[in-house]
Design goal:
The structure is a single chain. The protein is α+β, with helices and mostly antiparallel strands. It is built from nine helices and eight strands. It folds into two domains: 3-70, Orthogonal Bundle (Arc Repressor Mutant, subunit A), CATH 1.10.10; 80-247, Beta-Lactamase. It has helices at 8-18, 29-36, 40-52, 70-79, 81-97, 139-146, 150-159, 173-186, 228-247; strands at residues 56-58, 63-65, 101-107, 110-117, 132-134, 189-192, 199-207, 213-222. Strand 6 (189-192) and strand 7 (199-207) form a beta hairpin.
Length: 251
């Protein structure tokens, strides 16, 4: 693709939207310029364009995204086949394990939830389709990283903001790569209270007919109810069976 085929202004607008996160949901012009690398004048025009379109609000100092921005994500969810295909299988996992079930894909340094089935919350964070979680300390993230060559996975992990979310969160690149290789070797990802204290998560890869990993299936449980070892013992075979049934209908 030629650079002349790319709309620079559109790219800057998208970068401005991506500057807003669950942590940085109120940003000034200076904040956006710093996060995106845009100069202040360009950041200001991008933000005011979002306000003009109804995608952001401005209180005189800080900009905040409005609910209208959800239309962009819903456009993907409505058009993509994976969320529609996977939902009945997540419902089955939730029913048979009595645990929340999710499916996610890798987007840069994060796992994005594309579908979820839950009758109760097991996490402080209230996850839903579109929610993003760090890849380095999540079971789905390690599954998706394990599908890559080591060199690419290590480069991604090195770039990540590897915060210690709990006392036992692994942040060292070497230790994380050991977990990625272990995940690849045993065919599933398991994270025990690294993302959130009290939460255990188990994930398996989903492949397309060519054998490429395109997503992950995940269940989570409260550690005081089910230990990681107990989750594997009780639910891993079921997750494989549900995953295999899903793969039979993936085009």
């Amino acid at each position: 693709m030629k650079r002349t085929d790319v709309l620079g202004g559109f790219s800057k607008g998208l970068a401005t939207i991506e500057a807003f996160t669950d942590v940085t949901d109120r940003l000034s012009i200076t904040d956006v310029a710093r996060v995106t690398g845009l100069d202040r004048a360009t950041a200001r025009r991008c933000l005011l364009t979002l306000v003009d379109g109804g995608y952001a609000s401005f209180d005189g100092k800080f900009f905040t995204l409005t609910p209208k921005i959800l239309r962009l994500g819903y456009s993907y969810l409505a058009s993509a086949r994976l969320p529609t295909l996977v939902q009945p299988f997540l419902d089955r996992l939730m029913t048979e394990t009595d645990q929340p079930a999710s499916s996610g894909v890798l987007d840069g340094h994060h796992v994005v939830h594309v579908a979820r089935a839950s009758q109760r919350r097991v996490m402080t964070a209230n996850l839903s389709p579109g929610s993003r979680i760090p890849a380095y300390c999540s079971a789905m993230g390690r599954v998706l990283l394990s599908a890559m060559p080591d060199e690419r996975a290590e480069a991604l992990i090195t770039e990540m903001d590897r915060r210690k979310l709990t006392e036992i969160t692994l942040t060292d690149v070497g230790q994380l790569m050991d977990q990625v290789r272990l995940t690849r070797e045993r065919g599933y990802g398991a994270v025990d209270q690294e993302f959130e204290i009290g939460l255990c998560a188990l994930a398996v890869p989903v492949r397309d007919p060519r054998g490429r990993v395109i997503a992950a299936l995940n269940i989570g449980a409260q550690a005081y109810i089910k230990s990681m070892e107990r989750m594997i013992e009780l639910h891993l075979d079921l997750m494989y069976r549900v995953r295999d049934s899903l793969q039979e209908i993936i085009p």
